[in-house]
Design goal:
alpha/beta; Rossmann fold; Arc Repressor Mutant, subunit A; two-stranded antiparallel sheet; 15 helices; 11 strands; disordered C terminus; sequence-specific DNA binding; Homeodomain-like_sf; Transcriptional regulator, AraC family with amidase-like domain
Length: 339
């Protein structure tokens, strides 16, 4: 069982605190209860504020914590709720939070924040030289205040150096489901999402949802090439085209790309495309051929072969196992037996 600490802060959106509480408290419990199975709690959750007192959110809702940050004796995950849009006032008001975050990060604890809560993580220095996202409305403020952070507001989720950031207010849901998957795997995350009638985690605020593989490293030129790939993965791609985007020779690009990511450029492209295909098969009603075309493969037979290599099953079998469809919706009377 993982210990999760949700840090309540004043002035922000209450859903950025409540959504993680609901997701983590539902994992292993709600799905099982709906299907008449024994509940197996997977997370032990506590809520804290800076001083242990109730906080008032930006919408007038008061949230009472279990204690203060200094009461935390053990935690595997820390999730920060969002502050308001006035980052210049909110950041210094939470000064005691930053050494506490750095302490737990050094212990190996994962740190997560959604919306403007990512500014508090940036203020602690944990995002220096790392990729991060935040709400589009505060990103320019964050860029000025935290110039060392590689802000990518077009992404809903980012992960770097044991820190996960969510872009908007409701990205708190995506962030929480993403962390459930990291802890217990894809099937538990999907069950949690289905039980709460939520979509599976998205990671982009534009375009398709896909978790970019191996995106955290120190090669800026390769990182820029990856960012281009995330937006154009469905187009015809070759090593020559990718190298040209990076203004490098194909040989040098291939060498640096593999050093940075651990994969050849085209292996990386295939992994990115299959990740997108998984999301489409889980959440949309497109045919396998339509999914194949949507992720950049005109040859559906080749797509099926690649999909099986990376997931261990065919696209059809994957959809039957993981899709959120009409046959898997839970009703209060007469639970559907096909799931």
């Amino acid at each position: 069982m993982y210990d999760v600490t949700v840090v309540l802060v004043a002035g922000g959106a209450p859903s950025t605190a409540v959504a993680p509480i609901e997701v983590f408290n539902s994992a292993g419990i709600l799905w099982n209860e709906l299907y008449g199975q024994p509940a197996h709690p997977l997370f032990r959750l506590q809520t804290v504020s800076l001083d242990g007192r109730a906080v008032q959110t930006g919408f007038g809702l008061h949230l009472d914590p279990d204690g203060c940050i200094d009461d935390v004796g053990n935690t595997d995950l820390i999730v920060l709720a969002a502050v308001g849009v006035d980052i210049a006032s909110a950041a210094p008001a939470h000064a005691c939070l930053y050494p506490w975050l750095r302490h737990w990060h050094r212990q190996g604890t994962w740190i997560a924040g959604a919306c403007a809560g990512t500014a508090l993580i940036a203020e602690s220095g944990l995002l220096d030289d790392q990729v991060a996202t935040t709400h589009w409305g505060v990103v320019e403020t964050c860029r000025r205040r935290y110039p060392r952070v590689r802000w990518q507001p077009e992404r809903i989720l980012t992960e770097a150096n044991h820190v996960v950031c969510g872009g908007g207010v409701y990205a708190a849901v995506d962030l929480s489901l993403y962390l459930v998957e990291k802890c217990y795997g894809h099937r538990i995350a999907l069950q949690t999402a289905k039980a709460l009638v939520l979509e599976t985690p998205r990671t982009w605020q534009i375009g398709y949802a896909a978790e970019p593989p191996n995106a955290s490293h120190g090669d800026e030129r390769i990182a820029q090439a990856q960012e281009w790939l995330f937006r154009h993965f469905d187009q015809p791609l070759s090593i020559n085209r990718l190298a040209a985007q990076a203004c490098m020779s194909p040989r040098n690009f291939g060498r640096r790309f593999k050093t940075a990511t651990g994969q050849t450029p085209m292996a990386y492209v295939h992994q990115l495309r299959i990740n997108v295909a998984r999301q489409l098969l889980e959440s949309e009603r497109r045919t396998v051929q339509e999914v194949s075309g949507a992720v950049g493969y005109g040859d559906v037979t080749y797509f099926r072969e690649l999909f099986r290599q990376q997931t261990g099953m065919s696209p059809q079998a994957y959809r039957r196992r993981y899709a959120i469809g009409p046959t898997q919706k839970t009703v209060l009377e007469g639970l559907d037996s096909e799931c």
